[in-house]
Amino acid sequence: MTSIEPTTGVSPAARAARAAGCAFVSLAVWMGLAYTVIQVQGCVGGMECLGDALGIIFLCLLGAALSMWGLLRLARVRPAWQVALAGPGVFLLLVFGLVGGFFLGTPQLWVIAIMAAYAVAAVLVDGRVSARARWITLGVLVALLVAGVAGLGRL
After folding, report:
1. Of 50, 76, 87, 89, which residue is 20 to 30 A from 58 by alpha carbon distance?
2. Which chain regions cross the lipid bilayer (predicted)?
3. What range does the domain containing 58 cover?
4. Percentage of residues in the chain with pLDDT exceeding 90?
């Protein structure tokens, strides 16, 4: 193949969209499972259900993160294991950077942040993306983290 022929691989934007879709499917399945378990358990409210609900939701989020590798492989997001490992790290950078007040009480924003984190992770591990773009993206994520930590210090 010569240098003027187009590459036959998936574009970074398509890879990011596939990764975000996989994150949405994984979250929908695991959070649906968490909701079902909490309802079957018979929690109607109060402090006795809070610990159980938090534990169930944490375990389901962990299950969603672990099942991402298989979903990414099914969606042909390559390299799937790197995206699956980088996604939670990018998510933590996003959350700690944006959690400064408006993010806590809105679960929809958390889902969007998880989808965005996996999309960014898919682009970051793509070999066709320039090193400069990767460093700029990582710099923006670290700047968000620093701004979020500084914002939490003021609260």
Report:
1. 76
2. 20-38, 50-71, 83-103, 109-126, 133-153
3. 14-154
4. 1
